Amino acid sequence: MVDGPKYPAGTLQTEDGVQKLKEYFKWFVETHKDSQNPGHIAGHALTLKSKVWSTSIFQNLSLVSHSASPPHPRATFRLTVQPIHDNGTGNLHGGCTATIFDICTTFPQYMTSRPGFWQHGGVSRTLNVTYLRPVPIGTTVDVECEVVHVGRRLSSLRGVMRTATTDGTKGPILAVCDHGKVNTDPPAQKL
Question: Which family does it belong to (predicted)?
Answer without folding.
Answer: Belongs to the thioesterase PaaI family.
